[in-house]
Amino acid sequence: MSDTARARLADARLYLCTDARKRQGDLAEFLDAVLAGGVDIVQLRDKGMEAAEELEHLKVFADACARHGKLLAVNDRADVAHAAGSDVLHLGQGDLPVSAARALLGDDVLIGRSTHAEAEAAAAAVQEGVDYFCTGPCWPTPTKPGRPAPGLGLVRHTASLGTDRPWFAIGGIDLANLDQVLEAGARRVVVVRAITEADDPGAAAAEFTKRLSQA
Ligand SMILES: Cc1ncc(COP(=O)(O)OP(=O)(O)O)c(N)n1
Ligand SMILES: Cc1ncsc1CCOP(=O)(O)O
Ligand SMILES: [Mg+2]
């Protein structure tokens, strides 16, 4: 894995998952705004999309990330991550096992893992092949329907692990509740709607960035 990607992950505080915003305006303009606002990692998360269409959109994501020196992430699919030259592959508990993804991708791609319970977070903190993990949802969210929210208790537990491995809180986080997430011990967050549905996504990203850097 490149030292640059690893160093960027170590410094990352704000991770955005977004769809390809097909109906919501120019994708490159949106990505430029949020990356200029301080998003460190941007993931294309568009669950219904077929691989060919995903690859086309990922070219726009990859160009934007390269312009801003930020990390590109692919959700779920190791084949798409490889084909897109992604820096990051994100895997949930029901996705491809990390060991299988590593066998396919080698050491060139950072791998992230979702966790929703104390035992999963503790395992992800030490599991071989995992570069970072996410913990949540902090609050129930329409972005992940049907996923019960373990809440801030899981964030507190994860913070208490004292792991050096980067980890992010996720789920229902916005600028109004960010302080609660920080007080629970998180220093990195993943957001979807708080940026994608903001009137000014670049300004929302900049406000997250400022407050995360002060924490
Ligand atoms: C950065 C990040 N964290 C968590 C998730 C959720 O992954 P998963 O649990 O596999 O759910 P889906 O997003 O695949 O529906 C994520 N995608 N990215
Ligand atoms: C993908 C995912 N996994 C757990 S919560 C979540 C979605 C978070 O979306 P939002 O920030 O809009 O609540
Ligand atoms: Mg998944």
From TrEMBL:
InterPro entries: Aldolase_TIM (IPR013785), ThiamineP_synth_sf (IPR036206), ThiamineP_synth_TenI (IPR022998), TMP_synthase (IPR034291). Binds 1 Mg(2+) ion per subunit. It catalyses: 4-methyl-5-(2-phosphooxyethyl)-thiazole + 4-amino-2-methyl-5-(diphosphooxymethyl)pyrimidine + H(+) = thiamine phosphate + diphosphate; 2-[(2R,5Z)-2-carboxy-4-methylthiazol-5(2H)-ylidene]ethyl phosphate + 4-amino-2-methyl-5-(diphosphooxymethyl)pyrimidine + 2 H(+) = thiamine phosphate + CO2 + diphosphate; 2-(2-carboxy-4-methylthiazol-5-yl)ethyl phosphate + 4-amino-2-methyl-5-(diphosphooxymethyl)pyrimidine + 2 H(+) = thiamine phosphate + CO2 + diphosphate. One of its GO terms (molecular function) is thiamine-phosphate diphosphorylase activity. Mg(2+) binds at D76, D95. 4-amino-2-methyl-5-(diphosphooxymethyl)pyrimidine binds at Q43, L44, R45, D46, K47, N75, S114, K144. 2-[(2R,5Z)-2-carboxy-4-methylthiazol-5(2H)-ylidene]ethyl phosphate binds at T141, P142, T143, G172. Keywords: Magnesium, Metal-binding, Thiamine biosynthesis, Transferase. It comes from the Bacteria. Its cofactor is Mg(2+). Gene3D superfamilies: Aldolase class I. GO terms for cellular component: cytoplasm. Its EC number is 2.5.1.3. The keyword Magnesium applies. Residues 14-195 form the Thiamine phosphate synthase/TenI domain. One of its GO terms (biological process) is thiamine biosynthetic process. The keyword Ligase does not apply. Pathway: Cofactor biosynthesis; thiamine diphosphate biosynthesis; thiamine phosphate from 4-amino-2-methyl-5-diphosphomethylpyrimidine and 4-methyl-5-(2-phosphoethyl)-thiazole: step 1/1. Condenses 4-methyl-5-(beta-hydroxyethyl)thiazole monophosphate (THZ-P) and 2-methyl-4-amino-5-hydroxymethyl pyrimidine pyrophosphate (HMP-PP) to form thiamine monophosphate (TMP). Belongs to the thiamine-phosphate synthase family. HAMAP family: TMP_synthase. This is Thiamine-phosphate synthase. It comes from Streptomyces aurantiogriseus. The gene is thiE.
